[in-house]
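Students often ask why we bother encoding 3D structure as a string. The short answer is that it lets us treat folding as translation between two languages. Here is a chain of 735 residues written in the first language.
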Amino acid sequence: MRDTRYVRRFIVKHTTSLFAVLVLARAAALPAAEVTVRAPDSPMLRFALDKLGAALQRQGDVLKRTTNQAPDPGANIAITVEPALLADLGADGFRHLGTFQGLKIVAGSERGAMYGVLDLAGQVRLGTPWQQVPDRAVKSRFEFRAIKFNLPWAAYRTSPVIEQHAATCRDLKFWEAFLDMMAENRFNVLTLWSLHPFHYLVRPKNFPEACPFSDAELAEWRTLWRGLLAMAKERGIETYLINWNIFVSPEFSRAHKVAPWSVQGSHIGPESEPGDLVVRYTKEVVTQVLDEYPDLTGLGVTLGERMGGMTPDQRRDWLARTFFAGIAEARRPAKFIYRAPLSADTRSGGSTSEENDRRTRAQIESLTNNITGPVYVEFKHNWSHGHSSPDLFIVHGGPLSEAYWNPPPTRHKVVWTMRNEDMFILRWGQPDFVREFIQRQSGRDYVGGAIIGSECYIPALDYLSKDGPHKTWRWAFERQWLFYAVWGQLLYDPATPDARFEAMFEARFGRGAGQDLLAAWKRASQVPLHFASFHRGTWDGSLYTEGFFSWTDRGKGGRTFFDIDSFIGHPVLDTKRYINIADYVKAGRVPPGVMSPLELAAKLEQDCATAMERVAKLRASGKVAPALDCELTDLEAWCAYGNYFAGKLRGGVALAQARANSDVGRQRLAVAELEKALAHWKRLAELGARFNQLPVLSNSRQPFSWASLTPVVERDIELAKKPLGERRRDAAPNP
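And here it is in the second language, the structure alphabet:
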């Protein structure tokens, strides 16, 4: 099969001979045929070529493979790995080059070549013939592009909403689909989180009582882990097990009467170091896991939980005697993710200090024995609510010093965790926000990449969706396909154009829909970003954006809706761009570059109106398929939320002014605005329940739905109607 693009170039460059015209006509008229691909024989390329073969088959072509060991001079697509290109393309980059023969894909590494093939497969799948794929070279922006996946066994939080995923997460078919998604979106690191996963992997040689499973049961667990790790490796995905330090298995705790919190899974407390037995057990199990699972890339640890009462130096010493000592004795090297200390004092709640940062950096720079590559030092970008401002204001515990990167590091790289504790039900996708976050890292060579994911939501079992013709997916992560696409592909290549995401929409919902859908999602997805930037959150349960509430008692099961009184005075996160209602009313003005609450309300309403125009256009274009109807309904729900948020801002400003000046007229305005907001909330409740099984299990005691919160939304109106001299908060329960 000839490449018509290069035939045309030949004709233009030389003369338009009859022979050349005939060649062009013949090339353009060739029927679907066999496409020969010559490539090295490797697991990553076999995986990628399977994807390319499936994409070509959809166009009616058939892929035929040959290897470089059996060269085929007539191959249409030639794939080569040339280590000399690493300097230009990096470990994950590739180059597409058109030739008279066909297409050449070159890379400096096997993973780079895999991404080159996957890129070709993606373009073919989205409608571009392989012969027309343009020349281009791609070098990945970040070397570390990770997903945070909390496991449902020995889980960080114990609740039915987490435990319901256990069977799905033991299904290798699920992991195959999830890892495929990761590779296709260019994620190259999977981090698996558990309080203590090790007794699910091995029976400790010197502490067999720590493993509760029979030989047959443990064999099933080994099959799961080995299958998962092998599939990840085949897709160029590194794997890390990350735990929360001073935990042991419940069986070990009971047998030796140590670390009792390991039985209840309680991860915050005042206990200090539990003793040498736990240190020895942890060290030995780390070594054994690394020895028995060669496909596991590395480990990580959270330096914080269950270390209450220990000084920062004691915590670092504990880590040295357990994890680092265990890695040093393993038969192979491993990589390491070092979560920056969550506390700079003896408490568990979270604090930061420059001195603690310096001491931690010193420990990292001293690591040598068996720890390979850069140590990745992880920080939570804006604590547990990364989907807020693209600028950094806080990490876990407070503000971050420059000690980790000034002077520039040589032993470690920083990675930002962009946590999502804010939107689990409604879809989200805002490529411009991701690009803006990436732009903030410009010139920071010490930044290795980012980790995307949640503490409180596992994207496995789809327990949210109603059954019906709209449900064209099986797993939960497939609901949020745009979320993963924009994060993964832009972390890899920030120059990825909007046209790529528009083409993804068209592949799902039909030609002509992509531009309007992406434009609508950009506007609608701004709504939760505005809220989490305006309403400052810290730990994960302090803010659940799409529910407009927080969990109370640090995750013990309650929830507190953000009523109008708390809303008025709550501090903002992004102090560069926002000011809260109380400070605005008190000052009567805003600093340069800062949006007043009323300007934010206008911005929200404008964005929602623009998004709804696109939605209306799509709905009016003809019959809307059920899957597209589901997507449009989420857009409408975010717009209802945005208009509720805007109405509450207007009502809050009017109420604060009325209270400050005993102005009954402003009070009436506040009531009117909150009544309008209530109507938008009821619309949100209706839209949210259209395709979702609400109420659903949640991380609070009560199942979640927007409708269940309508009574507390209505209470805002009663609070606003109170006599202006009466400032006592209503004592009614806040579910």
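Translate back mentally: The first helix runs from residue 4 to 13. Keep this in mind for the problem set.
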